[in-house]
Design goal:
flat; alpha+beta; disordered C terminus; Pyruvoyl-Dependent Histidine Decarboxylase, Chain B; 4-stranded mixed sheet; about 40% strand; 8 strands
């Protein structure tokens, strides 16, 4: 059995609580994946793997299901501190080639800057895999326009601690779905 993801979707969540673990759980609930067992994986978007809407991706998830994710997680209990968790992806023009997913986080930076960086990271990984010389590559979102990159996307969540004794956790995820369609293709009868 191959564990090749057939679909993916982006999600985010933020949780606040006096206990760090509960704040993380609440962030996962808001992201729609608290009832699953999450396994973090690295940065490859399989060839031809479509990015679907979160509502479509959540259909059919089962409590306790093993779910593969690329996750960016930030947390803070420092009053006034802002932290951003971000996921970016870059998809190649050629559907037979894999894409890249990047995670990035930052403290006290505008979300727009964090998103530019994470898209730049994913685009840089894809551009170099398509032949761009590594020494010429920076962390700029300008790589998103590199020939061979069809699409980039990102999602971010911000943790902002507003009160003493309060944890805030934010997560941004790319959820990789491994759906077994073999039952649908089996003859009935």
């Amino acid at each position: 059995m191959s564990l090749l993801p057939t679909q993916a979707y982006l999600a985010r969540g933020v949780g606040h609580h006096a206990h760090q673990l509960v704040a993380f759980e609440l962030a996962l609930r808001e992201a729609g994946v608290a009832a699953q067992n999450l396994v973090t994986v690295s940065s490859i978007l399989p060839p031809g793997c479509p990015i679907i809407a979160r509502t479509e991706g959540e259909r059919g998830l089962l409590p306790g299901q093993i779910l593969h994710v690329v996750m960016s997680r930030v947390e803070t209990c420092e009053v006034g501190q802002r932290r951003v968790a971000s996921i970016g992806l870059a998809r190649p023009t050629d559907p037979a080639v894999h894409g890249f997913i990047a995670e990035h986080d930052a403290t006290n930076q505008p979300i727009s800057e964090v998103e530019s960086t994470v898209v730049g990271l994913a685009s840089t990984m894809l551009a170099t895999s398509l032949g761009a010389p590594p020494e010429s590559v920076g962390e700029s979102a300008e790589w998103a326009s590199f020939e061979g990159i069809e699409e980039t996307q990102c999602i971010s969540a911000e943790a902002h601690c507003e009160g003493a004794g309060q944890w805030t956790v934010a997560v941004a995820l790319c959820v990789l779905l491994i759906r077994d369609n073999s039952a649908e293709s089996q003859p009935q009868g």
